From TrEMBL:
Native organism: Zizania palustris
One Pfam assignment: NUDIX
Database matches in CDD domains: NUDIX_CoAse_Nudt7
GO cellular component, one term: cytoplasm
Cofactor(s), names only, from the UniProt record: Mg(2+); Mn(2+)
Cited InterPro entries: CoAse (IPR045121), NUDIX_hydrolase_dom (IPR000086)
Top-rank lineage group of the source organism: Eukaryota
Name of the protein in its database record: Nudix hydrolase domain-containing protein
Residues annotated as domain Nudix hydrolase: 51-187
Entry annotated with the keyword Hydrolase: yes
Swiss-Prot/TrEMBL keywords: Hydrolase, Magnesium, Manganese, Metal-binding
Gene Ontology biological-process annotations: acyl-CoA metabolic process; coenzyme A biosynthetic process; coenzyme A catabolic process
Length: 237
């Protein structure tokens, strides 16, 4: 691997080119019309529930040692859902959003003050279904100049911002897991412990699943631990 600022820049450019070629698998959560609906109820009895769409930003940058790092937040303890949990910047799609990338970038700006002009969007990843039946689309973006990012936290939504090494989510270190059943299927919940100074963070659930997949795509290898992938069936009404 090349070293120095010039080498790191070249490395990032190569990563951008490679990730732009990545094609995620077709989403299992699309409707016959071709995409998830923003409606929360079906048009007629017996149809598949059509979940709302959301997007999260996997914001990657090079750390001081040349390692790839990802930006994470700790949600506000006052929020009604997922309060105090570690999350990726992101949220539900709104009517004015042009696409999933626009949703992720808008939410990142609202939550942590990340200027969309600093981000090079390179690809989207496979879709995930949250426990609240949101179709979550991960958007991978590269932050080439970390020094230009001056975080401004929306205290109504975010208590803290931090970053971790992306490769951590392929390693068995600092990881525990448990098997649970949901919608008639067994699946694995992963828990990653991370410490920075006197701060301790627990990265788990959907956020951990998304980051395991993102790290597998970026590093082009599976994790060092068993990963049970499941595709939940949407309920019928």
């Amino acid at each position: 691997m090349e070293t120095g600022e010039e080498g790191a820049g070249t490395d990032i450019e190569a990563l951008i080119r490679r990730l732009r070629l990545y094609q995620p698998p077709p989403s299992p959560y699309t409707t016959a019309a071709g995409g998830p609906s923003t409606a929360t109820t079906p048009a007629a009895a017996g149809e598949l529930f059509r979940p709302r769409r959301a997007a999260v930003l996997i914001c990657l940058f090079r750390g001081g040692a040349g390692e790839l790092r990802v930006v994470l937040t700790k949600r506000s303890s006052s929020l009604s859902t997922h309060s105090g949990e570690v999350a990726l910047p992101g949220g539900k799609a709104e009517e004015g959003d042009a696409d999933d990338a626009a949703t992720a970038l808008r939410e990142a700006k609202e939550e942590i003050g990340l200027d969309p002009s600093l981000i090079t969007v390179v690809t989207s990843l496979e879709h995930f279904l949250s426990k609240h039946l949101l179709v979550v689309v991960p958007i991978v973006g590269i932050l080439s100049d970390i020094e230009a990012f001056k975080p401004v936290l929306n205290v109504d939504e975010v208590d803290d911002i931090f970053d971790v090494q992306l490769e951590m989510f392929l390693k068995d270190e600092n990881r525990t897991s448990e098997e649970l059943e949901k919608m008639g299927q067994l699946f694995t919940i992963h828990y990653f412990n991370y410490e920075k100074g006197n701060q301790k963070y627990l990265i788990w659930g959907l956020t951990a699943r998304i980051l395991i997949h993102a790290a597998s795509v970026v590093y082009q290898r599976p994790p060092d631990f068993p990963e049970r992938k499941v595709q939940f069936n949407l309920p019928k009404y």
